[in-house]
Write a structure and sequence with these properties.
Number of helices: 9
Radius of gyration: 18 Å
Low-confidence stretches: 1-5, 149-160
Strand content: 15-25%
Mean pLDDT: 84
Oligomer: single chain
Shape: globular
Number of strands: 12
Helix content: 40-55%
Strand order of the largest sheet: 4-5-3-2-1-11-12
Largest sheet: 7 strands, mixed
């Protein structure tokens, strides 16, 4: 196995800077899907993801691609302690019995060569079929194979990645300002994508193509990531699920034990928890 992968595993077993919190009453789910974490970039919301991992648990965890951003790391190495602690938590889940399935994306495509192998208790797969508690079959993949720009014009994909990185830098400054004045997290890039017509058209087309491919495969639905746009919708009789990202939206897709699917927007969860704490403190 690649020495860089081995080094990462050894690094991730070091003592975390953010020790895992023993949270009473963790939210329990049958399955969790997260993707597009982009460890190795300044835009990664690692501390918010750590908070998420410390407050939820599941029987199965799918890592749906772009967990580590190899594109960015090739240009400039950036790996703070919080990014190491995310890897540490993920590997710890696998060791304590959670089934962890890692489906590499285009930014961490170097790991695709290890598809079919198990690494530190983590199953590395090119794609997977997940059966829900109520018997539906869902195709799970990253989704970059349905992005014409990524597949046919790799140089343009890299140019877009550079522009996106600049936007995320602006997003970090904006939210640092908001925190100073006690305001909650707000995604500038998510707002921009919702307002720009071409972006909306691209997302809609992407969703249609992915759902169509899933329908041809004979499954009931599809779970993907890649476009950093969390959504649950039905397209031509196919259930489309996108778990979003942990750069701007900070979202996860979860399956409850009865098969019900839900998107968790973790910034909203944190805000609701803070309000509850304030109310509890006032009532004490």
């Amino acid at each position: 196995m690649d020495s860089g992968v081995t080094d990462l595993a050894e690094f991730a077993h070091s003592q975390p800077v953010f020790p895992e919190r023993r949270v009473a009453g963790r939210q329990q789910f049958r399955t969790i899907w997260i993707s597009d974490i982009h460890l190795g970039t300044r835009g990664c919301a690692a501390e918010m993801l750590i908070d998420f991992l410390d407050h939820v648990d599941s029987e199965t965890l799918y890592l749906v691609g772009d967990i580590i951003d190899g594109w960015r790391l090739k240009k400039k190495f950036f790996w703070p302690a919080s990014h190491n602690d995310v890897v540490w938590r993920l590997l710890k889940r696998a060791r304590r019995g959670t089934r962890v399935v890692y489906i590499p994306g285009n930014h961490d495509e170097v790991f695709r060569q290890f598809s079919g192998l198990d690494f530190g208790g983590v199953e590395i797969r090119r794609k997977a079929i997940h059966e829900t508690a109520d018997g539906r079959r869902l195709l799970v993949l990253h989704g970059d194979e349905f992005d014409a720009i990524t597949m046919a014009h790799r140089w343009l994909a890299h140019a877009g990645d550079a522009a996106y990185t600049a936007l995320m830098a602006l997003n970090r400054w904006l939210n640092a300002f908001r925190r100073t004045f006690g305001m909650p997290y707000w995604s500038l890039s998510k707002h921009a994508k919702a307002k720009v017509k071409k972006s909306v058209e691209f997302i809609s087309h992407y969703q249609d193509v992915v759902a169509h491919a899933a329908g041809i495969s004979g499954v009931d639905g599809v779970v993907c990531g890649h476009i950093h746009t969390a959504e649950i919708r039905e397209i031509a009789g196919v259930e489309y699920y996108n778990d979003g990202d942990w750069v701007e939206g900070c979202t996860a897709l979860v399956e409850h034990h009865d098969g019900r699917m839900e998107l968790l927007h973790w910034a909203d969860e944190i805000a609701a928890r803070d309000v509850l704490s304030e109310v509890t403190a006032l009532a004490a």
